[in-house]
């Protein structure tokens, strides 16, 4: 009887985890699927590195977009912003010979200013976000062509180039593997275990419910294993790309801000019920404004990463990025009505699309079919996600 | 031998192992008005959903017998085909379509998919005559009031050849005139042989129109009382609903009133969008420490606008006047500032303006004062949860834990969450706008206790309510309001419903 009860519990907890993590399963499924179809090329060190480099700018944009989508808003201008910032970076460093660090800082400021411009119209003048950012999209698309005079500028100085395609140096001179990356990974893993243990201890002290010890350990073990696998794959090639470090820092920071900080709570409250949030003394306009400024900053970072990887500033850079970033959020479980969604979800959503693109390219599927298949898979994936959530309610 | 048009036998319905209905029996006679009473969450709505086929056969056990035949409803259409029509509390009308189009929505007068508008209008006019709705059939729904919208729903039901009309809280959103009209209409239907089932919290209405009353408590049918044979009183209904005597619907309290604490002088407020339209005129108002004052006013009298304009200018513009707390002038230009100065306003619209429905109890309670449970902008989740659990226990919020989404709570429990949110801001002056709207007697009593506990601690409370007995039962002093003016202020010893009503409708001269 007890055993039966137990197995039922396990089944239920599996069912629940399926509801919460169905996108993780979909990602895993897609990875395994392409791993088999590409005869193992997908997870080769070189390709994993490429996957990260190719998708980093979309993932960076998706983080900022997630915040806006949770707020119940949207930003269609991020691709244009990224292109404009890339163009400005090229003009500053190539034409005007401004030192790279100063140029980078100026570019970030430009991004924030564009975000603030969006935020002003949306938060304070109450222009619908869709229209306002469609306007700025056109505005900065046009301005990009104007400042570039319709030409392509290249090449970038080494420092900027390294943002997009460089790797962290191997200070330990590993032979066939990138030893320094492994050491960093080990430190991160230890820090993760220690902080998890501390949180758990604090929760027990405060008499809060915690997972059973077995569940707790298996969760940590699974995370570490996955992390170790990725680390080894990367270390066997050139080590951690610089972009991965940027991405990891952003991811951890924004996860913390959205989940643990007061401002994060305010963001979810506004998205859940703006009127109730306002009547609770939350400064809804200010937070929306900040959300757009933040999006501008991240669009600038994405713009720098993208043009650095391309090693050129072009007028067509970042075309359609906004839709990829928005799709990543929705695939990752964000709600079109606002108030729901997580940074990690957006990351998973971005990776689902990235692996799809990459896998099909490896298989030699033409761009035409790639588009169609990607659209169909996305539709099915999100439908499956919604279905599994409604089933196990 | 009485003739039962409807029998529901031993209906049991479970949600994930929890019995929402437990062997419920309901017998409705042909042509009667049958009332179903019960607290929120007692299972009334679930029972009606079973009856109307929202939950198909198989999801519940028991039998539904209509006119002697056992029915297996698979979907709502099936029950409608048997003449059972339900009108939900939240009206299901399309605001942008006309009255006529709404009446025949899903049941259009069409041939080969083309709608015949002349027939639609003609038939609609006939139905509107029956329910006494004097409007043009082409008028859009959004242009008529809630009372008339309710009539449109009923016209829609009649168009479907209704035999059993079920109304869920039909008068909850209506004013007194509209409510009376509606109840008269039900009595008229009765003469024509239509059977009505009404679910209502308003016991005076239940007493006024119904023939039999079935009481449901905790998912079980407790009793069915016949108004003629049994000596039914409001108190005997309440007793059945809550399972205990509630001799006094308002808890006893000995007021301990202190000095004047909060004052509003020469308060003027203008409409936020219509330039030059004044909403509040030269209002003067004060509350003492430990005092409960009431504001009595009809809808549109400016009672909500007054409270919201004080609360950080949440309503209106060009707000002028002085606000004093403890004799010192204070400013509350923004809601943040108002909260910092110890003001709180519990909205009349808990779903629209009070709660984030998709979030859990925990996050809703901490929302207005997160900084109290955070350090350097980082929320201390453990102490946040402790606070929520404290409130849950203290205010007897019924839920499994504080991580339950508020969307799934009953109205009374949602209201408690909103009040808990504002208590957590530790206010000195609390405005409660319709604090017990749409919640049952038991939960009302508990909310009254919470209010009294607050004034006991020396806080000041202002209750805005449409229910005059509530104001008379709870307040120490009652302001009356009409057309943006305070018309009078009446000490509780002198106040009666008649006096209040007289002052609430008193003409105001400029």
What is the fold's blueprint, element by element?
The complex is a heterodimer of chains A (393) and B (510).
Chain A: H1 2-37, H2 45-70, H3 78-95, H4 100-124, H5 129-148, H6 158-165, H7 179-205, H8 213-235, H9 242-260, H10 262-272, H11 274-279, H12 284-310, H13 321-331, H14 343-362, H15 367-391
Helix pairs in contact in A: 1-14, 1-15, 2-8, 2-9, 2-12, 2-13, 2-14, 3-4, 3-5, 3-12, 4-5, 4-12, 6-12, 7-8, 9-10, 13-14, 14-15
Chain B: E1 4-15, E2 18-29, E3 33-37, H1 44-51, E4 60-66, E5 69-71, H2 76-81, E6 84-87, H3 99-103, E7 110-111, E8 114-115, H4 117-131, H5 146-159, E9 164-168, H6 176-191, E10 195-199, H7 203-209, E11 212-217, E12 220-226, H8 234-242, E13 260-270, E14 278-288, E15 292-297, H9 303-310, E16 317-325, E17 328-329, H10 335-340, E18 343-346, H11 350-354, H12 361-366, E19 374-375, E20 378-379, H13 381-394, H14 411-423, E21 429-433, H15 441-456, E22 460-465, H16 468-474, E23 477-482, E24 485-491, H17 497-504
Parallel strand pairs in B: 3-10, 3-11, 6-9, 9-10, 15-22, 15-23, 18-21, 21-22
Antiparallel strand pairs in B: 1-2, 1-4, 4-5, 7-8, 11-12, 13-14, 13-16, 16-17, 19-20, 23-24
Structural overview:
The complex is a heterodimer of chains A (393) and B (510). Chain A has 393 residues and is an all-alpha fold. Chain A is 77% helix and 0% strand. Chain A has 2 domains: 24-166 and 263-391, ABC transporter involved in vitamin B12 uptake, BtuC; 167-240, no CATH class. Chain A contains 15 helices and no strands. In chain A, helix 7 (179-205) packs antiparallel against helix 8. Chain A is globular, with a radius of gyration of 22 Å. The two termini of chain A are 26 Å apart. Residues 1-5 of chain A have low confidence and may be disordered. Chain B is α/β, with parallel strands linked by helices and 510 residues long. Chain B has 3 domains: 4-242, Rossmann fold (3-Layer(aba) Sandwich), CATH 3.40.50.300; 248-342 and 427-510, Rossmann fold; 350-426, no CATH class. Helices cover 32% and strands 28% of the residues of chain B. Chain B contains 17 helices and 24 strands. In chain B, strand 1 and strand 2 (18-29) form a beta hairpin. The model of chain B has no long low-confidence stretch (mean pLDDT 88). The chains are: A mainly alpha (393), B alpha/beta (510).
């Amino acid at each position: 009887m007890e055993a039966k009860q137990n197995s039922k519990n396990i089944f239920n907890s599996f069912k629940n985890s399926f509801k919460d993590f169905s996108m993780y399963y979909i990602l895993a499924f897609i990875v395994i699927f392409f791993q088999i179809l590409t005869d193992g090329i997908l997870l080769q060190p070189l390709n994993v590195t490429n996957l990260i480099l190719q998708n980093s700018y979309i993932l960076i944009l998706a983080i900022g977009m997630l915040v806006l989508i949770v707020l119940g808003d949207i930003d269609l201008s991020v691709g244009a912003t990224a292109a404009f910032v890339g163009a400005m970076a090229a003009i500053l460093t190539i034409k005007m010979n401004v030192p790279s660090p100063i140029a980078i800082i100026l570019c970030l400021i430009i991004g924030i200013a564009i975000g603030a411009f969006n935020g002003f119209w949306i938060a304070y003048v109450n222009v619908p976000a869709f229209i306002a950012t469609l306007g700025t999209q056109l505005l900065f698309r046009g301005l990009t062509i104007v400042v570039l005079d319709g030409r392509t500028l290249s090449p970038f100085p080494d420092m900027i180039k390294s943002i997009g395609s460089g790797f962290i140096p191997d200070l330990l001179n590993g032979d066939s593997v990138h030893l320094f990356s492994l050491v960093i990974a080990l430190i991160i893993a230890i820090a993760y275990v220690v902080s998890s243990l501390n949180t758990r201890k604090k929760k027990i002290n405060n008499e809060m419910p915690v997972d059973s010890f077995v569940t707790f350990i298996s969760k940590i073990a699974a995370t570490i294993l996955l992390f170790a696998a990725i680390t080894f794959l990367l270390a066997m090639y050139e080590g951690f790309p610089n972009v991965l470090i940027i991405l990891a820092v952003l991811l951890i920071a924004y996860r913390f801000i959205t989940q643990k900080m007061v401002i994060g709570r305010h963001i979810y409250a506004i998205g859940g019920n703006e009127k109730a949030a306002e009547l609770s003394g939350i400064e809804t306009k200010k937070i929306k404004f900040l959300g757009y400024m933040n999006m501008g900053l991240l669009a600038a970072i994405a713009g720098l990463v993208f043009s650095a990887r391309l090693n050129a500033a072009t007028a067509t850079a970042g075309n359609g990025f906004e839709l990829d970033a928005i799709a990543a959020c929705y695939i990752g479980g964000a709600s079109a009505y606002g108030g729901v969604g997580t940074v990690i979800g957006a990351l998973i959503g971005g990776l689902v699309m990235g692996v799809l693109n990459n896998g099909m390219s490896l298989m030699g599927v033409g761009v035409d079919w790639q588009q169609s298949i990607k659209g169909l898979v996305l539709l099915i994936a999100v439908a499956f996600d919604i279905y599994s959530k409604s089933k196990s309610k | 031998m009485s003739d039962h048009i409807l029998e529901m036998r031993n209906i049991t319905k479970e949600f994930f192992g929890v019995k929402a209905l437990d062997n419920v029996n309901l017998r409705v006679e042909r042509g009667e008005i049958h009332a179903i009473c019960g607290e929120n969450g007692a299972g009334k709505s679930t029972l009606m959903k079973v009856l109307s086929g929202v939950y198909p056969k198989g999801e519940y056990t028991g039998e539904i017998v209509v006119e002697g035949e056992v029915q297996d409803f698979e979907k709502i259409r099936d029950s409608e085909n048997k003449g059972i029509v339900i009108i939900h509390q939240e009206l299901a009308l399309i605001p942008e379509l006309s009255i006529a189009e709404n009446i025949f929505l899903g049941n259009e007068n069409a041939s080969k998919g083309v709608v015949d508008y002349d027939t639609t209008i003609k038939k609609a006019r006939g139905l509107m005559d029956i329910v006494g709705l004097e409007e043009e059939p082409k008028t859009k729904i959004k242009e008529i009031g809630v009372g008339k919208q309710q009539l449109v729903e009923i016209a829609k039901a009649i168009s479907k050849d209704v035999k059993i009309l079920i109304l869920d809280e039909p008068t909850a959103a209506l004013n007194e005139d509209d409510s009376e009209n509606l109840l008269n209409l039900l009595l008229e239907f009765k003469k024509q042989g239509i059977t009505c089932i009404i679910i209502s919290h308003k016991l005076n209405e239940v007493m006024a129109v119904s023939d039999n009353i079935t009481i449901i408590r905790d998912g079980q049918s407790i009793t069915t009382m016949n108004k003629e044979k049994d000596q039914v009183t409001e108190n005997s209904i309440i007793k059945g609903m809550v399972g205990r005597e509630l001799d006094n619907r308002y808890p006893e309290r000995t007021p301990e009133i202190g000095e004047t604490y909060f004052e509003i002088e020469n308060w003027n407020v203008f409409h936020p969008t219509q330039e030059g339209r004044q909403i509040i005129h030269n209002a003067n108002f004060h509350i003492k420490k430990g005092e409960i004052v009431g504001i009595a006013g009809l809808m549109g009298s400016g009672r909500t606008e007054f409270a919201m304009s004080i609360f950080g200018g949440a309503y209106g513009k060009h707000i002028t006047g002085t606000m004093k707390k403890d004799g010192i002038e204070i400013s509350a230009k923004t809601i943040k500032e108002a909260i910092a100065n110890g003001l709180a306003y519990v909205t009349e619209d808990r779903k629209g303006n009070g709660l984030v429905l998709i979030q859990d109890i925990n996050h809703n309670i901490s929302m207005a004062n997160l900084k109290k449970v955070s350090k350097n902008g980082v929320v201390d989740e453990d102490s946040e949860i402790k606070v929520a659990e404290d409130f849950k226990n203290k205010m007897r919020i019924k839920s499994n834990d504080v991580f339950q989404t508020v969307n799934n709570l009953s109205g009374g429990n949602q209201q408690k969450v909103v009040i808990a949110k504002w208590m957590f801001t530790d206010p000195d002056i609390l405005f409660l706008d319709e604090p017990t709207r749409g919640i049952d007697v038991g939960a009302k009593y508990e909310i009254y206790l919470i209010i009294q506990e607050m004034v006991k601690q020396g806080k000041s409370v202002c209750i805005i309510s449409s229910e005059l007995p509530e104001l008379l039962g709870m307040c120490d002093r009652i302001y009356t309001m009409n057309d943006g003016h305070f018309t009078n202020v009446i000490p509780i010893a002198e106040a009666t419903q008649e006096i209040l009503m007289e002052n609430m409708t008193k003409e105001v001269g400029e």
